[in-house]
Amino acid sequence: MDNEKVYQMPFAKVYPLLVNKAVRKGRTPDEVDELTAWLTGYEPSQLRAFLEQPLTYGDFFRNAPHPNPNRMKIKGLICGVRVEEIQEPLMREIRYLDKLVDELAKGKPMEKILRE
């Protein structure tokens, strides 16, 4: 898929898909919110508010208030591509969240997911 198409997708359509992926594997929406807040610096209440706004997925990451410096420790494959090797900075940020949700869905403990 073209990166620009991903960046223009509505946050309100993409984020529930990530939450559903985790919930299907026995995790909670609050855990996905915690991961997302850790990664971006948004408050969980802001995440819920964004679901009601016309915000693009790209702008969600572009406007992240406090990207976590430990996000650079996120490594591994996502969709067959090493997340740490993604050259486009915005796509790398998006894939960081994908990777965190994948780890959550696979049952990894939160302490390890959050690179504590």
Written description of the protein model:
The structure is a single chain. This protein has helices spanning 3-8, 11-24, 29-40, 44-50, 57-62, 89-105, 110-113, and strands at 77-78, 81-82. By secondary structure, it is mainly α. The longest helix has 17 residues, at 89-105. The protein is globular. 24% of the residues are buried. The mean pLDDT is 94.
Strand-pairing-aware structural class:
mainly alpha
Shape: globular
- Beta-strand segment tally: 2
Gap between N and C termini, in Å?
Answer: 33 Å
Low-confidence stretches: none
Note the run of SSEs as H and E.
HHHHHEEHH
Blueprint (SSEs and pairs):
Blueprint: H1 3-8, H2 11-24, H3 29-40, H4 44-50, H5 57-62, E1 77-78, E2 81-82, H6 89-105, H7 110-113
Antiparallel strand pairs: 1-2
Key attributes of the depicted protein:
116 residues; mainly alpha; two-stranded antiparallel ribbon; 7 helices; globular
Q: What would a concise description of this structure say?
A:
By secondary structure, this protein is mainly alpha-helical. The protein is 57% helix and 3% strand.
